[in-house]
Design goal:
This protein is an alpha/beta fold. The chain has 4 helices and 8 strands, in the order H-E-H-E-H-E-E-E-H-E-E-E. The strands form 3 sheets. Strands 1-8-5-2 form a 4-stranded parallel β-sheet, with helices on both faces. A two-stranded antiparallel ribbon has the order 3-4. Helix 1 (about 5-15) crosses helix 2.
């Protein structure tokens, strides 16, 4: 699939469904540029989460107590319910470093069940907002390369 085709598919998924598009490609092929361009073309605000640099607190907000009840502040990146339609780009999903960060984001990127809202911990995403995921696989996962990096890699297959 080329970038023009990717943009057509992304536009369709974002505007016609509540599914989570997952864009997979190597560094520098234009994944992020295509996602940003589609957001602009369909008049969505754009928010990028670099998951490889985030901890679970960055995703779910910080806890605070009101009397005997625990609450969680809305993360600064979370689009408000009344905000313009926003495309939340969860970049580097496979590079999230901590298991709890991965578990938190998996709840968010999973498409909601019919009649439900997309959620992250205690936060509910307003229905006009959408989510897209991008993954950059390690270089050794190129087609034709061995399953794991090793000394006998074919030419062009380098460890990520």
């Amino acid at each position: 699939m080329n970038i023009a085709q990717l943009k057509i598919v992304l536009r369709e998924i974002i505007t016609q469904t509540d599914l989570t598009a997952c864009v997979v490609g190597h560094r520098g092929v234009g994944k992020t540029a295509a996602i940003v361009q589609v957001a602009a073309e369909i008049d969505f605000a754009y928010t990028s989460l670099r998951l490889g640099q985030m901890e679970v607190g960055d995703l779910v907000g910080t806890p605070y107590r009101i009397e005997d009840e625990m609450h969680w502040s809305r993360p600064s990146w979370w689009p408000a319910a009344e905000a313009q339609q926003t495309l939340v780009h969860c970049d580097e999903l496979n590079r999230a470093q901590q298991e709890d960060t991965l578990q938190a984001i998996f709840q968010f990127v999973e498409p909601p069940a019919r009649g439900q809202q997309r959620a992250l911990h205690t936060h509910k995403l307003a229905p006009q907002h959408r989510v897209v995921v991008a993954i950059t696989p390690p270089r050794w996962q190129l087609p034709g390369c061995p399953a794991r990096p090793g000394p006998a890699r074919p030419r062009g297959c380098a460890a990520g």
